[in-house]
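Re: your question from the hallway

Yes, I did run it. Sequences:
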Amino acid sequence: MIKILHPGFFNTIQDKGRVGFAEFGVPISGAMDSFSADLANHILNNSLENALLEITFGGCSLQFLENTIICISGADFLAMLNDTKVSLNTQVEIRKNDVLTFGKRIFGSYAYLAVTGGFQSEIKLKSRSFFQNITNEHLLKKGDLLPISSINKEYSISNASIKFSKHHFESKEIYCYKGPEFEILTDFQQKALFEKSFTISKEINRIGYKLNEFIENNLPQILTSAVLPGTVQLAPSGKLIVLMRDCQVTGGYPRILQLSENSINQFAQKTTNDTFRFSLLEN
Amino acid sequence: MYQLQYKPFGEKAILIEWPVTISELILDDILIFKSKIIAQKKSCIADIIVGYHSLTIVFNSHFINYTDEISILKSIYNSDIKSAKKFHHLWEIPVCYDDEFGLDLEEISKKKNLSKEAIIQLHSQPIYTIFFIGFLPGFLYLGGLDSQLFMDRKSNPRLQIDQGSVGIGGKQTGIYPLNSPGGWNIIGKTPLLFFDAESEKPCFATSKDFIKFIPISKEEFYEIQRKVHNKSYQISKKSIHD
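Structure:
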């Protein structure tokens, strides 16, 4: 078990999400930055399907009530194990009663805490990913006890650490494909999309990130149709919304761009006031 | 056979579009195509999402060549694999239109110059077609609202609308499956649950099923609510052939 001492801003359990339930209107969910989540599981030799703790913006602490091995990947929130700084992207041995604290944000928005064998919280619709009205909890509270897999008595820690580049967190280029309604934009609107630099607004969450800048919008709304994580919608006001992992399954705003899978992960690690450009890929 | 448009939708999905109209004929064609695709390619598909005039196929992994995938899909569309004859259900949905639940009945009545009884009659008369589920888990997109009841969404959305509330938004009527903020005009409430995360089939209804609203009293509402809570309520349904 892991006990939440201080719950922080918005922490959830996430895995690969609820695949196969879109026909019931169920969002996919899953780790915002699945690249970093996979990395943490991979370093522990876990299955990539194993559930992890997703930590948003640091500022939380938890206590291990049993021995285990962990790996932290993704954002850097100055993680401390008791009084010692913890390295990212490497196996870390944990003793019963150790306290892990995430402090202030150095870079990124989402950190992933993987434990050997994965978190064992409830499965709803084939996933452990927290989602309001589907899982009993939708974010962690003080005092919550999270079940984890027990480890083998005979285990050994590998000191290997993955050399990683900060490009994943610092790239100012977000790669995307033309969305289904891209072609109904005027040349002027299309050009503006790739020439402008965009800024992420204060309105950001697991459902989507709104951008500050406007694109002239004279497009009609569309008949309700599918949207996906990474779909860029053009709202009636002319603002852009980049949909993220908890987005609805259908929408009525024109879908003008679709982020590449890797760019969704990189975009997830950005935050309010970060700037970037869209860069077009060909299908 | 319709002239369909196939569009890549990122690295993992293909969007197929029918002519831009809301029609049951198009819905039928979409669902036939959907069942053929599932029969042929189920193992490589993560999700298939139905829209009014679209089908979006989300693959399990990045597909290698989308031109190839599209030509496979085209030949599936043109094939005449007989999909098994399907039954559809007509579900009877009890709704209490009492003032306690019908928060905006009064306002609609004034604006439309219709009595509350007339509104209830117009709303509970038609058989509505379920086009698809989206927006919220278990939210049914319904076709068939009487044009006399078309009513713009409220300019000030409510911060919370109770689960089960039945509303009108523009040319659509629908049921809020979960507590949620919302801008629809609320005319009643059903004690039934439209989303149950404990079930492998979390919503009892599906595309091309039908529903009819059955007006009930407040006493009946609470009685059915109790049964739903105890899982002893059987939703009344009829089978309809294709």
